[in-house]
Amino acid sequence: MTRPVLIGAPVDSGQRQPGCLMGPAAYRVAGIGGLLQFLGLSVTDRGDLALPAMLPETDCANPAVDQLATTLVWTALIRDAVGRTLDQGGMPVVLRGDHALALGSVAGAADHAARAGQPLFLLWLDAHSDFHTHLSTTSGNLHGTPVAYAAGCAGFDGFPPFPAPIPADHICLFGIRSVDPAERRALDERGITPPLTVFLHRVRGADGMMHVSLDVDFLDPAIAPAVGTTVPGSATFREAHLTCELIHETGLMTSLDLVELNPFLDDRGRSAKLMVDLTGSLMGRKVFDRPTRSFI
Questions:
Q1: Could you tell me which residues come within 8 angstroms of residue 134 by beta carbon, excluding any fewer than 6 positions away?
Q2: Residue 47 Rama label (left phi>0; alpha psi -120 to 50; beta)
Q3: pTM of the prediction?
Q4: What is the pLDDT of residues 176-216, one digit of tens each?
Q5: Cα angle at 281 between 261 and 213, to 5 degrees?
Q6: From edge to edge, which strands make up the β-sheet containing 120-125?
Q7: Rounded to an integer, what distance in angstroms lies between the CA atom of residue 121 and that of residue 170?
Q8: Is 208 exposed, middle or buried (0-12, 13-18, 19+ CB in 10 A)?
Q9: Going by C-beta distance under 8 Å and a sequence separation of 6 or more, which residues neighbour residue 62?
Q10: Residue-wise pLDDT tens digits, 115-136
């Protein structure tokens, strides 16, 4: 039976819009623990990870890169927490924080998969491909780099090599609609574009583990405004829930990120509540099970 373990990662270092560090608290206030218990799951909340008092000195060949030292430390902390949780038989649910922290969560899942002798698959539910490297990024925001790191791309000086880089056919980017030219060239070269159902069949056929990374901007900003990187035209309420229900029905998800929630930009907790509801769908709740809810 699924045993979700909540791991808070209050991080803002992957981008320059303050507020994502409040994300873990917002998920808890929106009732994520209670919902998982309501679904009959034995949930553990391990609280929030914290940075040490001193950070290492770092430099980067690309002067645009922002907050590299902080992101390196967060990456190591999250990688260790996710790997240990999986080793202990739990399903890590990382509450964050911006998407740079997938640098650590996907690496932790890859560590565990290698020890278990199973392939790891990555399902990226996001408006952005996040396929820049430290050398290709022009914004310098490291939340745009995790998929390239997981794929084993060069250009991540200062980071440990990614454990068992994930092959292109083990990565699915679903919902993307904002891709920079450099990212598009890299994605075209690697062929990371499988439809979701094809991808899920591929995971099952390989007896693989699947890390799911769900970004608030996977959702249309009309229903989820609490993100600093909104891109119009993505998943509606119903589409998002059906996507999550489809993922649950496969029984393939072994770890989960909930990312880029910025409560400072939210409307009375609307986005946080929706992300918690989507987590419910990923864990087995159906759209038609939900009571009517007001956003007041």
A1: 60, 61, 62, 65, 68, 142, 145, 155, 156, 157, 158
A2: left
A3: 0.91
A4: 866 777 766 776 555 554 588 889 999 999 999 999 999 99
A5: 45
A6: 44-48, 4-9, 91-96, 253-259, 209-215, 120-125, 171-174
A7: 5
A8: middle
A9: 134, 135, 137, 140
A10: 999 999 999 999 888 898 888 8
Q: Which residue has the tokens 């690697």?
A: 190
Instruction: Select from 123, 114, 115, 296 the least CA-distant residue to 204.
Output: 123
Contact 7, 81 (CB under 8 A): yes
Q: So what CATH class is 4-289?
A: alpha beta
